[in-house]
Every structure is written in structure tokens, then in C-alpha cells.
């Protein structure tokens, strides 16, 4: 990501970086999965698979990026694409994650829309909520990490080793680093 001529970081840079870090972890998991493990049913009714959670994450990024295409300002997470191919084939999902990472990097060099409108269904008529790209990127970080934590739980019975930071929100990682500093200073 580039910085403006003033040398100050772009306002969205940190939010984009958090999303990119989560997506890099997700891609690492996808690169290690066989299609059989990716489709393995979990839960009493067998509704949960790694693939369904990954597809759900991708759907939300696609909804944001699709809403921004060609200068759009309307977002709708309710009417997502739900591409079942992404639930079945980890390599296809990994490629889509790579595409999303590139699109997020491109956002860093663009001027964000001043405001966005999020359609949120309540009752018969959806609400039109005012939001911003920054707010939606913050939402996507939390949403992605939430589903990655579930992925981590589902990966355990499959014997998949994940990094300790997998599915941990950046705020928690920062807290862990702050807590470790006094211990490191005592040992010095």
C-alpha cells in the first residue's frame, strides 16, 4: 500500500491490513485442505462444513466489493451470491480469496465514497442504514475472524494444525503483545 505525498498513512490502510491478515490466514488453511476435509459434515444435523463457513466469509467480501463497483454506494449482505462451488472446492475458494485480497489492496489507492447505504432487513421493508467504507471494513474483520474461530474448532477433529493466532481478532492479538511486554522486560 502506498502513502499519500504528505507521508501520512491513508485512513483505510489499517483496516485493509487487518482484513488482509485474516484472509492470508484463511488462504493458508485452504491451501492445506483436501476437498474431502473441506466438505466433511459436522454437527448433529451435519449442516456445518469448513466449506460453508469459508463461502459465507467470501460472500460478505463479494457483497462489499460488488456494492462498490463502478462507484456504487449501496451494500446488501442479505442478498449474497452463495456460490456453492466455493463450498465444495478449497482451491476455488483460495483463488477467490486471492482475488479479494487484490481488490482490497486496490481500495487503498482509491478515494472512498463519502458515505454508503446498507440495506438491512427488518420486517417487510429493509432499513437503509448510513455507513462508511471504514465501518464496513471493521465489520468484515470481525465477521471474518468470528467464522475463522468456528473453522478452527471444526479443523481440530480433522487433525489440522493451525497457528495460535488463527481466528483471533487483531485487538486480542494486540492485547496479548501488550501483556507479553512486561514479562519480556522482566526477563531482560
From TrEMBL:
The cross-references to InterPro entries, in alphabetical order and at most eight, read: DinB-like, DinB/YfiT-like
DinB-like domain span: 24-150
> What name does this protein carry?
Putative damage-inducible protein DinB
What is the species of this protein? Halomonas campaniensis
Q: What is the lineage of its organism?
A: Bacteria, Pseudomonadati, Pseudomonadota, Gammaproteobacteria, Oceanospirillales
